[in-house]
Automatic annotation (TrEMBL):
Protein's GO biological process: cell division; cell wall organization; peptidoglycan biosynthetic process; regulation of cell shape
Recorded name of the encoding gene: murC
Organism: Streptomyces harbinensis
Annotated protein name in UniProt: UDP-N-acetylmuramate--L-alanine ligase
Taxonomic placement: Bacteria, Bacillati, Actinomycetota, Actinomycetes, Kitasatosporales
Residues annotated as signal peptide: none
EC number(s) stated in the UniProt entry for this protein: 6.3.2.8
Length: 470
């Protein structure tokens, strides 16, 4: 039975409908029968996929794009107050709904699992959604990345489970009331919204307090921030919550006993809370991705899915776009795309690829994301890049931010050089010059990573095209 569409969502208009989070909600609403419309600043495969489902997608932002009878306007935190469509909606008295409010409304009536954490949310949510689907449980899901093609970041399923990525960046995950919550890690990030790690802890506590009474929290037993948060939560007497920890720590309830790498895959062995052990494959490289799979296993088990079947189903996960995604190979060089943009993520992905590179070198084309993040973490980014055999650092991708005086990619390249990294000069032509520069750096057997949360992802096919030419 298809859940009823909230009246405010019957004719929604999405500003920035092509974004990862926005497009997923638009897709589910379209599948439920809503008359969805929206706009984005440029056309994309995601926009085309939404049109194929029946949504109306216009390119550019113009007040005229708001159709008569629009029931609400859905925005994300990236939409500026002076956006003409947003300004028109407010002038006309059309309700303005944040993306997270729309997602929370979609989850109403479902048994929801919300995956939070500074890193790994998209991968863990994807792993769990794929595994539940493999088991024939027909979950709904909303993910911050595409599983196997444009528009695959969300789905309206006929089952009772709804798996969602819970974004802490703007505190929007406070709106969710899951039956099972997952916290993968807790670190200071999103410096435009959080002034200190204490604010991060407080934000995650609010998220946890919203778990339905009698629900379950799955939390990392290894990561320092997550352990501090767990201690704070256990000291509270007002939470009706079961806490299940996972990781390699001896006190973990779901303990990782072994992670065995095998090229771009790995096998993980765990001991469950009941003392039983099981092993299963993970079709992406790196210890951190194996731990994501264990978090997905613990979350699904908490929702009542048998552990043995779920573990085997997790092996059917083959990756999500931009998470160490192999784009292709040319001239003996593999090109892999990575969404990593925080130093912890960068180090984890580089260590994973180092283990898969064999005798080849690891070369990175890195695009910093946000001026505020570069200002606060540029030194650590440079230190992470020292794990590569060579790196090329592009200009900062601004996204929603205006430039900050004195904050440039030099903060990263200087730090990388100081930590012994081989830093290749950025091409004078910027991104357009990257394929030629990489062709001059790479040799057969090397792995090239395009890394960052911005449009650096567009470079993979272009690099492959250039490598394929003599």
């Amino acid at each position: 039975m298809t859940p009823a569409i909230p009246p405010a969502m019957e004719r929604p208009h999405f500003i920035g409908i092509g974004g990862a989070g926005m497009s997923g909600i638009a897709k589910i609403l379209t599948q439920r029968g809503a008359l969805v419309a929206g706009s984005d600043f440029r056309d994309s495969a995601t926009a085309a996929a939404l049109r194929d489902l029946g949504a109306t997608v216009r390119i550019g932002h113009d007040a005229a794009h708001l159709a008569d009878g629009t029931s609400c306007v859905v925005i994300s935190s990236a939409i500026r107050a002076d956006n003409p469509e947003l300004a028109a909606a407010r002038l006309q008295g059309i309700p303005v709904v944040h993306r997270s409010e729309a997602l929370a409304a979609l989850m109403t009536g479902s048994r929801s699992i919300a995956v939070a954490g500074t890193h790994g949310k998209t991968t863990t949510t994807s792993m769990l959604a794929v595994a539940l689907g493999t088991l024939g449980l027909h979950p709904s899901y909303a993910i911050g990345g595409d599983l196997d093609g444009p528009g695959s970041n969300a789905h309206h399923g006929k089952g009772e489970l709804f798996v969602a990525e819970a974004d802490e960046s703007d505190r929007s995950f406070h709106r969710y009331t899951p039956e099972v919550a997952v916290i993968l890690n807790v670190e200071l990030d999103h410096h435009a919204n959080y002034a200190s790690l204490e604010e991060i802890y407080e934000s995650f506590e609010i998220f946890t307090a919203a778990v339905r009474p009698g629900g379950t929290l799955i939390v990392n037993a290894d990561q320092d921030g997550a352990r501090v948060l767990t201690a704070r939560l256990r000291a509270r007497e007002d939470l009706d919550l079961r806490i299940v920890t996972y990781g390699e720590s001896a006190d973990a309830d779901v303990r990782v006993l072994d992670v065995r790498p095998n090229g771009l895959t790995s096998t993980v062995t765990v001991r469950l809370a009941d003392g039983s052990e099981l092993s299963f494959g993970v079709s992406v490289p790196g210890r951190h991705y194996a731990h994501n799979a264990v978090a997905a296993l613990a979350a699904g088990t908490a929702a009542g899915v048998p552990a043995a079947g779920l573990a085997q189903a997790l092996g059917s996960y083959t990756g999500v776009g931009r998470r160490l995604q192999l784009k292709g190979e040319a001239a003996g060089v593999q090109v892999i795309d990575s969404y990593a943009h925080h130093p912890t993520e960068m180090s984890a992905d580089l260590e994973a690829i180092r283990g898969a590179a064999g005798d080849g070198r690891v070369l990175v084309v890195f695009q910093p994301h946000l001026f505020s993040r570069t200002r606060e973490l540029g030194t650590e980014m440079g230190q992470a890049l020292a794990l590569a055999d060579g790196c090329l650092v592009l200009d900062i991708y601004p996204a929603r931010e205006d430039p900050i005086p004195g904050v440039t990619s030099a903060l990263i390249t200087d730090a990388a050089t100081a930590h012994g990294a081989t830093v290749h000069p950025a091409p004078e032509a910027g991104k357009d010059g990257v394929p030629e520069a990489v062709a001059g750096m790479a040799r057969p057997g090397d792995l090239v990573l395009t890394m960052g949360a911005g449009d650096v992802t567009e470079l993979g096919p272009k690099i492959l095209d250039r490598l394929a030419r003599p």
